Amino acid sequence: MSKLKIIIASILLYLVFMVALFPARFAVKLAPLPNHVQLNQVSGSLWQGKVGQLVVGRYHIDQLAWEMHPWQLFTGEAALSFTVGKSRSSLRGHGDIGYGLSGLRISQLKVIGDISYWAPSTMLPLRSKATGQVEVFIANYQQGQPYCESMQGQVEALTLDVNNQFGEFPLGDIRLDLSCDNGKLLATASEDANQLGAQGQFSLDEGGVYQLSASIRKVDSQPEQLQKALSFLGKPDAKGRYPLEFSGKIPGF
């Protein structure tokens, strides 16, 4: 290796470590943050640091810690591993995130939170109140157009219970499988992954255009109030399934 190449490699290595070891609290002061974002109790370095509390709008995230992988920079990707929350936090989880020439990459991400964190009562219709937990697991995700190149994951609601003026609805556990199809985000429900007799697929396409194509049938495991409400969906088909067909565009998406 020529002396010039050794000098260039040494300078690049020095710069990588300088950036990695730069104090995180100074970086926060230098970085322009949006008005709705706050970082409190910042410590450590860009390489390995912690934030006591991250506030994004109404969402509060406690104990965010990260560890960068500087050597990934030589492959053209900035990558880090993170953890968030404590055992009793409203939101807790961990995962690996990278960003490079191919866009955002996520792997082995798992986030668990109370359903009141994701959807507080003020966001629910009919003065509903919901209890339970929501788990999001992304085994792998690669950014693409319009939303994804590939994705494999799950969203699961555990011991979901909804109460409103029409009664109590113990909905139990519900799992949705996440995937990608030609850039569209897909969430698929199979009947064996819930106790509601529901199956179908939700898709999100470019510009926030969505489509729900699903159906539900009467099963013994359904809450009694839900069984009574099925008649409002119209007439069932030959297999006893009531159609659930909706499409539109998410406002402001």
Automatic annotation (TrEMBL):
<comment type="similarity">
    <text>Belongs to the GSP N family.</text>
</comment>
<protein>
    <recommendedName>
        <fullName>Type II secretion system protein N</fullName>
    </recommendedName>
</protein>
<keyword id="KW-0653">Protein transport</keyword>
<keyword id="KW-0813">Transport</keyword>
<keyword id="KW-1003">Cell membrane</keyword>
<dbReference type="GO" id="GO:0015627">
    <property type="term" value="C:type II protein secretion system complex"/>
</dbReference>
<keyword id="KW-0812">Transmembrane</keyword>
<dbReference type="InterPro" id="IPR022792">
    <property type="entry name" value="T2SS_protein-GspN"/>
</dbReference>
<dbReference type="Pfam" id="PF01203">
    <property type="entry name" value="T2SSN"/>
</dbReference>
<dbReference type="GO" id="GO:0005886">
    <property type="term" value="C:plasma membrane"/>
</dbReference>
<keyword id="KW-0472">Membrane</keyword>
<dbReference type="GO" id="GO:0015628">
    <property type="term" value="P:protein secretion by the type II secretion system"/>
</dbReference>
<keyword id="KW-0997">Cell inner membrane</keyword>
